[in-house]
Amino acid sequence: LGFDGQGYFYDEKKDEYLQREKGLYLVGSGEAFVPSLHLHGGLNIYDFSEDDLFGFAGIHYLHNNVLSLQFEADNLRSARRNRLNLGGRYFITPSLSVDLAARDLWAAGRKAERIIRLNYFGSF
């Protein structure tokens, strides 16, 4: 259970975000079918006055603790607002990884994003 209040891709002409915030969301996740294959799903609502309930689902597979493949369908309610995301993560070390991803592959009137990200995981 969580809350996300930040939208993305602000349009100054319309004075609104093209991609709305998640708002209040509920997520469930678990390993299914084969080891290291995780299924995720959830619901979110960002505007309680409109009662717009959205869904999202994803699949994540981690191979030998080195390569991770991910697929996500987001904003599921109306086809023109659906978002499909695809990505991979390569663990150089247990603390350092590289992500390659594509976001908004089914972009209806929006440009798809290509992402390269370096991640460092640590603790203190």
Task: Describe this protein's structure.
- The chain has strands at 2-4, 8-11, 16-19, 23-31, 37-45, 53-63, 67-76, 83-93, 96-103, 113-120.
- The chain has no helices and 10 strands.
- An 8-stranded antiparallel β-sheet has the order 1-4-5-6-7-8-9-10, with no helix packed on it. A two-stranded antiparallel sheet has the order 2-3.
- A hairpin with a 3-residue loop joins strand 6 and strand 7 (67-76).
- It has 124 residues and is mainly beta.
- It starts with a strand and ends with a strand.
Helix-strand blueprint:
Blueprint: E1 2-4, E2 8-11, E3 16-19, E4 23-31, E5 37-45, E6 53-63, E7 67-76, E8 83-93, E9 96-103, E10 113-120
Antiparallel strand pairs: 1-4, 2-3, 4-5, 5-6, 6-7, 7-8, 8-9, 9-10
